[in-house]
Amino acid sequence: MNHNFYNFLNLLKIESNKQEKKINLIASENYASLSSIIYSSSCFVNKYTEGYPSNRYYSGCKIFDIFENKAIIESQLLFSSNFSNVQPHSGVQANFAAFQTLLNKNDKILSLDLKSGGHLSHGFKKNFSSLVFKIINYCLDKNNLINNNNIELLIKKEKPKLLIVGYSCYQSNIDWNFLRYISKKNNCYLLSDISHISGFICSGLIKNPINESDIITSTTHKTLRGIKGGIVLSNNKLFFKKINSSIFPGQQGGCISNFIISKYITFKESNNFNFINYNKQILINSKIMLKVFFYRGYVSLNDNTINHMFLIHLKDNFSLKIEKILEKNGILLNKNFFPNDNKNSINPSAVRIGLSAITSRKIKKKEVELISNIICDIIENNNVSYKETINFICKKYPIYK
Ligand code: DSN
Questions:
Q1: Which domain holds residue 172?
Q2: Is residue 25 located within the same domain as residue 73?
Q3: Cα 280–284–285 angle (5° rounding)?
Q4: Beta-sheet pairing, 23-24 with 331-332
Q5: Which tens digits make up the pLDDT trace of 32-46?
Q6: Among 379, 229, 219, 232, residue whose Cα is nearest residue 292
């Protein structure tokens, strides 16, 4: 082994130590289960598997066919869907497959704007979505809620071909029944991007919008606790073929075979009581933390959260600084826009907090309250140091036992 290889191992060790020693509150991250990590690096890293089960472009895919079929069936069971494509490399590619299936070039998409909690791939001006399609945005209303009447007005006025529902920092319920009703009435498709809340949906804690949506997309690495990847689901027979051909050969070549086996493990692990209890605990922890912030005088988007995440307004414009000071103390989170606030993206006025990762470490009420108070203390006095306390909590709750 050469010197560079030892350097490489050293870097891996530094990263793994860092993950162990930080309290991770980044809402889009989690710790993939050990089995999903192990299966993601099997001998299938060597195998090209372009195509779909029983219809591949290379020989030698019989064993992989078994695994991909299992992943498909397990994800269909998990989300009560009739169709699933497990090949997207990411959530963005899953979304693009939905666009390719439902839209033609220059068709109109109605989506939540980025500053209100939309996603880059839902039509941000520098993203492919806005280069290929015409984007109209809806925003959160003055109560920081998705406003059904506002969406209805925009659908009637702008006549979009697609409404996107599903957000990166939304804390309240989504009225899928109404959105389905109003979009269908106006010949508009409905895409639900459930990337952040898919774990809650398959645990039955949030309504499954499979019957209200033409297509559902999700990532596999947030509340689902798998490795990075995407999936596309649908109950609409008209779209099954188009979704498949838009993933392959439309936008991807060979799927990442080893990752698909790992996705199968993730779907299997998400389909049991332990996973449901895990998601229930995330919700408990999320509500506890938000309550401490309220007690300490902070403002969030709403007075509650129904999922793993929420925004906290920092009053003054210093979220970039706070993100860095918290990191020095061993706490990771991300600065975020606060809707209806005119701050720039480099230094917006809020932080986003997510509880999925620390709940994977089995952290509960006592430490959640402690961490919340520590964050408030640091925001209020940038010079205090809680490194030792954070280190102690991390040691007590290792990521992988
Ligand atoms: N950018 C991710 C998030 O943080 O929500 C989603 O892709």
A1: 36-269
A2: no
A3: 115
A4: parallel
A5: 999 999 999 999 999
A6: 379
Report which residue type is found at 82.
Answer: N
Q: Are 349 and 342 in contact (CB under 8 A)?
A: no
Helix (H) or strand (E) holding 397: none
Q: How far is the CA of 87 from the centre of ligand 1 (A)?
A: 20
Q: Is the pTM of this model over 0.85?
A: yes
The 10s digit of each residue's pLDDT in 224-244 is 999 999 999 999 999 999 999
Ligand 1, from 168, 193, 228, 323: best to mutate by most atoms within 8 Å of Cβ? Answer: 168
Tokens at 293, concatenated: 């912030």
Per DSSP bridges, beta strands 134-138 and 215-219 are: unpaired
> Radius of gyration (Cα) for the chain, nearest Å?
21
**99 plus 194 within the same structural domain:** yes
Which residues have CB under 6 Å of ligand 1?
28, 91, 119, 168
- CA-CA distance, 246 to 5, in Å (whole number)? 39
The DSSP annotation for 176-219 comes to HHHHHHHHHHTT-EEEEE-TTTHHHHHTTSS--GGGT-SEEEEE
Q: Residue 249, preceding bond cis, omega within 30 degrees?
A: yes
151 alpha carbon, distance to own chain's centre? 23
Specify the CATH number for the domain of residue 255.
Answer: 3.40.640.10
Tokens of 70: 């299992």
DSSP assigned state of 121: G
Closest atom, ligand 1, to C-alpha of 334: 4
Which CATH number is 311's domain given? 3.90.1150.10
Q: How far is the CA of 169 from the centre of ligand 1 (A)?
A: 9
Ligand 1 mean position, distance from CA 311 (Å): 14
Residue 106 has pLDDT above 80, yes or no: yes
CA atoms within 13 A on the CB side of 250: 18
Residues 233 and 86 in one domain: yes
Please report, for residues 24, 317, 318, 328, 376, the alpha-carbon distance to residue 379 in angstroms, rounded to integers and kept in the order given: 17, 12, 9, 13, 5
Over range 373-395, report the average pLDDT. 96
